[in-house]
Design brief:
The structure is a homotetramer. By secondary structure, chain A is an alpha/beta fold. Chain A folds into two domains: 127 residues, 3-Layer(aba) Sandwich (Rossmann fold); 82 residues, Dihydrodipicolinate Reductase, domain 2. Chain A is 35% helix and 28% strand. Chain A is built from seven helices and eleven strands. Chain A is elongated and about 60 Å long. The mean pLDDT of chain A is 93. Chains in contact: A-B, A-C, A-D, B-C, B-D, C-D.
Chain lengths: 224, 224, 224, 224
């Protein structure tokens, strides 16, 4: 049913980029553009550009996607507020999916955290995230997404950097006589590649606008 | 505001019974009846009888509460289906609160588990419970409550018995690339005593009927 | 066999002080001195003074123990280097046991951590500690003891403050393909009171000197 | 320094077999034999045969290794006592490394567990293992190795089957007032492939005999 997709990857040689390429090519989709620090390789124009690179390459990738005039999936972690605003402006002209975490489990964790936070108003809260030693931003974008569930509350985030851990996140609520903890554990980066594939299938049929991965999973609408 | 309550405890000398008595007497309520394997001690008729004893004493406690014609809170763990049915019949004539776990956190865990089970239909599920070495029933009544959220699904429960652990429960969902876990940890039995106090305050104003601790926490109604 | 001990407690009304008093009096020992912010209560001279108070009271407690000329057990958390040095000087004249954590499990954790650190030299290390919201010092003294196992290595400590948690500590080693974690969980403050009782029995037969709780558990000697 | 190795893999298409082949070929070693349910493929005689298949193929693989007269690394999980005995007999004529788990971290866990079990004689013990839903044997061979540390003691093992989890193991000690837990988490099967590579390098220089992965890691000797 799903036709084959012509896709491009920025940050092609990175850990996430190569995982995405493996999954997409397994599914029969066609890599028609790739870029990395050592240059670009273009066969034809992609229908969707997937940005798995670092924030430093962001301005260049914005230019690329405008030249291609294609859908844009942004999986860069550690993007600044300014760059997020530029992305929202861009989304008036092309469909954009942006998230700091493309796992379905994290979407459920955010959803459960919101419900628990309504029910446990006077309990303490602690967020913890653990990632591999090569991760550059701290705390993780996902941990910040969890913190945002509590809005203006000042919630502590503990960041651990440990070997090759793909990514663990937990939020713990503590009362005087009991604690309640919700933990997400990514087994492999494959999980994120699968969320990005789901996003690519979602965005091809959408009008211009700014979509989150929550929209991809729960089917909500453009809110740029 | 809350008037003082005349309360009775069956299983008065047990771990939970004495915790309940400590909390209720701290709050200024009056112990007017107590019973245990070594006999009964009655000053006057209680407004509420709290059953913290073992299933073996259940028939006797049913007689007691009928004689007192007072509200009944049942915190006995390991009650059989038959005895639960007897309790429901009794609730036509007196107000009853029954639960295998009187902690608020467990109520939230059950609520979150229900939501997660809707969203993660094809993931594997594992329930784990850990309790002190003196706990006699296995798996815990609380673990069975969690399993019931999944209705007819055959969910595995692992039971661990370890030193003086007051009571831990977790439910874990596993996909191929990620896992999501909800864990409840009881810091002390005080937590259960506080839930029983909340139930006593709730039941004094209620008409005859069978109430769960979910009803006490979320304010639902008699469903015997 | 163990004769009854005449003991004194500084910080008598605190969480740890009252737990210590409960356990010692259960065992038939005699409280002959107690002090707290609101004053002192002296029946006779204690054989051992147990300091469960805050660092601010330290100078006063040093004077007390010199007046009593008795053994000294110091369970104050958050003592500065300077005060520890004063304590070592004092130990030339009286027997002293000092520790930031009087649980046997923590002693085993320290022991296992030392062995693991020898075997896993190039793995990353992360220490985490979680305590109740009233705990004032951060990171915990115990977390610092764990960090000291790694000597001059710069190891990160994450501190969580959560409801009524008595005290959890973990040390996690991370390689590229696997992680190894050692976790200690205090079920109740009773554990620390039991370690202090063990220390009191130990110190009564010892000559002047500075002893750690490691010495109490593993039977090593004075190393002031 | 290490010369290139000519290796063979039985169970070549399985999850572990392909992981081993990826790592060995990355390192420049040469696959000269492979077998699976659909047949064999032989270029030349291997210096070492690595058995990543199922117990059902064991007798056939024994014949293979005798024909090749080469070293033998056995990573099959769920081997019966009888088959292990056959393997020990075979090791009189060829060098054999056998383990149910080729991760270094598990070796450390076993080592720490042994030490802790000496120090915590009267505490309760619980072993837990979690693996992906495709794992056929239960409990895991590794969990049995952990249980063997406690010799004749009857220790409970809880087995969880959950999504795509590569393999987690924990052993928990519980006293009345505290618990101590040692947890190993495999991030990916790559870890096991690395232990098998280490074993291949080890076994090529060894005389006939039966070696465990403990011997490979800690350098002990033949104990068939």
């Amino acid at each position: 049913m799903q036709d084959k997709i012509d896709y491009g990857i920025a940050g092609y040689r990175g850990r996430l980029g190569s995982e995405v390429n493996n999954l997409f090519s397994e599914k029969g989709h066609r890599l028609v553009f790739s870029s990395d620090v050592d240059g670009e390789n273009e066969t034809s124009k992609p229908q969707v550009l997937i940005d798995c690179s670092l924030p430093e390459a962001f301005e260049n990738n914005i230019k690329l996607v405008q030249r291609f005039n294609c859908s844009f999936i942004v999986a860069v972690t550690g993007l600044s507020e300014n760059r997020l605003n530029d992305l929202k402006k861009l989304s008036e002209r092309i469909p954009v999916v942006q998230s700091f975490n493309f796992s379905i489990g994290i979407q459920i964790l955010l959803n459960l955290t919101e419900r628990a936070s309504d029910l446990l108003k006077d309990w303490d809260i602690e967020i913890t995230e653990t990632h591999h030693r090569m991760k550059k931003d701290m705390p993780s974008g996902t941990a910040k997404m969890i913190k945002n569930v509590f809005r203006d509350k000042d919630v502590n985030i503990s960041s651990l950097r440990l070997g090759g851990v793909p990514g663990d996140h937990s939020v713990e609520f503590g009362g005087m006589g009991e604690t309640l903890k919700i933990t997400h554990h990514a087994i492999s980066r494959r999980t994120f590649a699968e969320g990005i594939l789901k996003s690519a299938e979602f965005i091809l049929n959408k009008e211009n606008g700014f979509y989150s991965f929550t929209d991809v999973v729960f089917g909500k609408e453009n809110h740029a």
